[in-house]
Amino acid sequence: MDDRTFRNAMGCFATGVTVIATEVDGEAHGMTANAFMSQSLNPKLVVISLKEDTNMLKRIKESGHFSVNVLSEDQKDLSMIFAGQIKTEEKISFDSLDGKPVLSGALAQVACNVKSEYVEGDHTLVVGQVSAVKLEDGEPLIFSKGQYRTLEKPVPMKN
């Protein structure tokens, strides 16, 4: 199969949208990613998958920590900025959670310390030990078949 067919097949799986962030030399850096999953409850671990040639992977290796910011449905512009799809001169401000940079308004902010790394294919799987979590109300931003989407509001069930 060709690469496009494979990508199209993988795009059928709807995912949430995250911004992975880290800080190096006092400067916060972020990157949009949807390759994120919960890995373990005890200990609390998550996994992110980053392409080998990304600056974010180099920065996380240097800092030894990262955050995962699960974006809300009203944070599409932030996703596009950190994906390089929208250019802006405006400096994006980060808050801090357990010393890691996080985005205000994200549905979930997950602060992590790097526990281990595994190179598989052209990506590195980075396992993070969760050190802190902050939650907000709202609905998630979804990505599927190359487009941003939102969840339909729940309809109350009739008894």
From TrEMBL:
SUPFAM superfamilies: FMN-binding split barrel (SSF50475). Its EC number is 1.5.1.-. The keyword Ubl conjugation does not apply. This is Flavin reductase family protein. Residues 10-150 form the Flavin reductase like domain. Signal peptide: none annotated. Pfam families: Flavin_Reduct. Keywords: Oxidoreductase. It comes from the Bacteria. The keyword Oxidoreductase applies. GO terms for molecular function: oxidoreductase activity. The lineage of its organism: Bacteria, Bacillati, Bacillota, Bacilli, Bacillales.
